[in-house]
Amino acid sequence: MSSRKRVLVAVATIAAVGAAVAAPGAAASGRHQDWDRTAYRGQIEVVRSDDGPADPTVLNGTVFVDRDRDSRHDRNERGLAGVEVSNGRDIATTDSRGRYRLPVFDNMTVFVTQPAGYQVPVDESNVAQFHYNHLPAGSPALRYGGIAPTGPLPDAVNFPLVESRLTDDRQLSCIMAGDLQTYNITEVEYARKGAIRDLARRNDYQGCGSLFLGDVVGDDLSLYDEVKELTAQTNGPARFLPGNHDLDFDATTPEHSFDTFRAQLAPAYFSYDVGEAHIIALNTVRYPCTPDVDNADGRHPECNNPATRPRYNGRIDDTQMEWLRRDLAKVDRDKLIVIAGHIGLMNYADEGSMIHQVDQAREVYALLHGRKAVALAGHSHSIENMRTGDLMKGWKDLFGIDGLPFPHLTAGAIAGDWFSGRVTEDGYPTALQRDGGRPGVLTLDLNDAAFQERFTVTGESDREQTQLGLNSPTYREWYVARDAWNDEDEPTTPAPELGDPLVVDRADLAGKTWLTTNFFMGSTGSTVSVRLDHGRPAQAVRTQPMRGEDQLVGPEYSDPAAIAEQLVHGGSLADRTMHLWRYELPADLRAGTHRAHVTATDVYGRTFTDTMTFRVVEQR
């Protein structure tokens, strides 16, 4: 490097080789200290000179192996060949010396696709560092700042990596965390005491890290600093994709709608490799709704009317679609494709909505035809495990598909039902979700190019997978009465009381009362069996078969355990779910106390057991 050049690294201080960087709560976990001791802390290298680049229409740089971990490309550090670097539109593959060249345009984000066997640096908050924003004049005036002026094009943007066995293991665990969505400091603390504390105690995801699936905050983008304090407690690289509550709502064009997110956390879309998986993080949120673009295919006529125009819709813009085509073309066809977005390609909770599913879903399916793939999403604050071939009426009517081409998983939400309900003794709310599921995080366990999914309820072990209840005539009558009472502006009568939900009249047994099992990760191919007292096991029936029917909605299809909380303590109503099974109680069940033994078995043969004690009386 000539004396006329100077190196600007995107942070003021880089941790020394092998130095442990203390994070909040680190002392509480020896395993966390292990991550701190070995984590690769650093930043990308931005090289500038007084003269500037020889050709301002081309960005140059090198992907290199940072042997001394100082984030600087030293003469003795080799470049890495065959690595993809993108400007969000074009993709360059590094040459034998690790060099790349990319066309330049305003408001581009340049990022490296981390190859398996290597690790990009993380900052002191564990946020992965792998991108550079080029916006010379900065964002337009935005409430939360957007991107500060980046100035002229640098001479080079270099991407440091270190070798990592963790990212190339046959078996890897990837945290897929749905909607953190904190609206204020109180909710940040709920998250800290809940799912983040759980992640701080886990040490199984260091190689793959965590991907937060959008709605990282709830409209207040100043809380990104608080979010980084939370990720500082986790044990692996933290990556983020944008959600509809991460928007710069004062942006007047889609090009600047995620500027603050891009400045603080990550590119709007990107990809990375771990093991035999290629993970693609998409931006599936379009804001604002633009009539000549978003209604070009006639799908969003509401965009033409300012009075009814939605704030956003589920869409992948043309530039991103072209990048996706080019990105997939670089990926070996034997690899597993994990494609993630905030708004899901297809979704059960909002299956009849064009706004809350992705317009280009069929185009994405065509690109992935013949590949091993799984889709991940957040957004709906529900847990959904949808398998190949599953079909809902809304998908067929709106999108013309005849069944899902590969599994789709909705990861639930760290916030659960927007941090609603009773605050538990553990310091966070019950927040039962729209489907009755409890808050938590999804883990994708990779084994070469195969995967298994598991959901971890906040504060619980992985064995906590079911929620049992009784759906009786008494419960259904109370549901209707209490729901109507809640809707009254100024109720003049006391709130209807349910009484003991685990007591049922003998007269209400025959065909009228069911034992319900909410199997959080239950899906097509899962089974639920019930054994009463010392009897023989019998199969329960899934309430939503997902064979092309409409959503089944109402008290008959609800989760009584969830509703008993939600109608009394607030939140959404679990009046529909794709993972509820029910078992009809026998008409000849004697009066007295009974014990139900429930065994839920998932598509991988894993079994989960639960028990419930209830009482039959001659007259309630």
UniProtKB/TrEMBL annotation:
Cross-referenced Gene3D superfamilies: 3.60.21.10, Immunoglobulins
Keyword Signal: yes
Domain Calcineurin-like phosphoesterase N-terminal stretches: 75-134
Annotated signal peptide: 1-22
Domain of life: Bacteria
Assigned keywords, A-Z: Signal
GO MF term list: hydrolase activity
Stretches assigned to the Calcineurin-like phosphoesterase domain: 178-381
One example of a Gene Ontology biological process annotation: carbohydrate metabolic process
Pfam short name (any one): MetallophosC
Cross-referenced InterPro entries: Calcineurin-like_PHP, Ig-like_fold, Metallo-depent_PP-like, Metallophos_C, Metallophos_N, STPP_CPPED1, TAT_signal
Keyword check for 4Fe-4S: no
Every Calcineurin-like phosphoesterase C-terminal domain range: 410-608
Protein name: Phosphoesterase
Organism of provenance: Jiangella ureilytica
